[in-house]
Request: fold
Amino acid sequence: MIRTLTPLLAALMLAAVPMAHAAPLAEAAAPAADSAQVKVVYHVNDASVARAAMNNINNELNASPNDKIVLVAHGKGIDFLLNDAKDDKGPFEAQVAGLKDKGVDFRVCNNTLKSRNLTPDAVIMEAKVVPSGVAEIARLQAKEGYVYIKP
Reply:
């Protein structure tokens, strides 16, 4: 029995030596740096979360500058993308323009515009009008592989 265990014990000891020099488990499990572009659609249907959404987008771009981001607004969410829109912190347009300069696309629901008797001219120039906000979100997820975030 000792003759059988001795080679087994020696093999186990030799196998353990490289483990002493291996990276800690947390480092070994960390994913390699990936430069692949992540595509994200932010869904805003309430303008009261518009600043938080744009802050989230800015934070995401600071961490992952290659990400492709689209913000889709409909319902009460379009209010911050209308001409001269502002809240208690001031106008929205500068923050929107700053994110637009970083490659963020802003899309506004035409169904919402129609239901509120607004024309596309009511929307700031940084935003694009799409036929339906919810259809745009669905399309981005189903056809273009975007992940969904609702701030």
Q: What stands out?
A: The first strand starts at residue 39 and ends at 46. Confidence is low (pLDDT under 50) at residues 16-32.
